[in-house]
């Protein structure tokens, strides 16, 4: 009986050692999986933030393009009006020439919005100031 008890005690000890080893390995695997998950979450968060920045930039770009498209429509309308007045016998050749130049500049800005957002923003700011001055000056002469 004593021998059976000793054999069972040894088996129990061996099983406890194996169990502790398996438990330690499982805990290690769990820690590794948690670390991997944290890395993935960090990557996904960074990607999400980058996507939000891109979305904001796209909206700003679309707003900028819409602004310049509207400005182009105004320039064309103004030129057409000047041409109609010129057709009635008034000498507006110089004003029409300036209106055409302004229209071409604005058309270039619209094109820049399509080609490169960063370049169009800096060009739009300068072009907008110039076009306002040019647009106002011929309007006063009419």
In words, what does this structure look like?
The structure is a single chain. With 142 residues, this protein is mainly alpha-helical. The protein has three helices and no strands. It has helices at residues 2-87, 93-115, 117-141. Helix 1 (2-87) runs antiparallel to helix 2 and helix 1 packs parallel to helix 3. It is rod-shaped and about 130 Å long. Mean pLDDT is 80; it is low at 119-142.
Q: Strand percentage, roughly?
A: under 5%
Order of helices and strands: HHH
Q: Report the average pLDDT across residues.
A: 80
Proportion in helices: over 70%
- In total, how many beta strands? 0
> From the structure provided, what is the oligomeric state, counting identical versus distinct chains?
single chain
Outline type: rod-shaped
